[in-house]
Amino acid sequence: MEKPPAPSSAEVIAKSPKQKKKVILPSLVGTSYTNQDELRAKYKSMNQLLFSRLSNDSSGVTSYYKDVSREMKTKYRQLLSEEDESVKRDRIESWRMGSDLDLHRLSVRSAMDAVVECLKDWWTQEMNDRESDGKFEKFGPIAEFVEPLVIITGRGNHSSNGLSKIKISVLAYLKKANYIYDENVGNVSVLGRR
Description:
By secondary structure, the chain is an alpha+beta fold.
């Protein structure tokens, strides 16, 4: 028995279990998104479509639409997570190539993963260079061989309280891990470690 053709990437075709009626919804999967805002807008419009159908449903398929909505939410979160991971990898790679560590468009969790990874690499490089110099004990807590690590956290303009959640998390981590840093508007410069 031959499988029916898969729906195009532009739509999802499903049949209501109680009525053999086709429901056509735009798909989140198979479409490339330039950023999270575009994906968020697509998800929001799809949810509005579903909820309008839920409120106008008199045929008893409300539970079906709720299931579709749940499935859509799961796909949406998965796509956001995949994009977040990809952006994080790109930002870490850019930092390794010599630019600042820019945390814009990352979730707090991914931003902190990137910060921890870059700080570890940054301070390890400093320690290796100190060891190569031969007089390890003559150096203080400020990095002598590597440039300060500039972490761009953003100002928090898009946060509800006007404070950057990422910056708050970065500062808390730096303090806890005994890093020496200068806090600036929209970024933090890590100078060394106690």
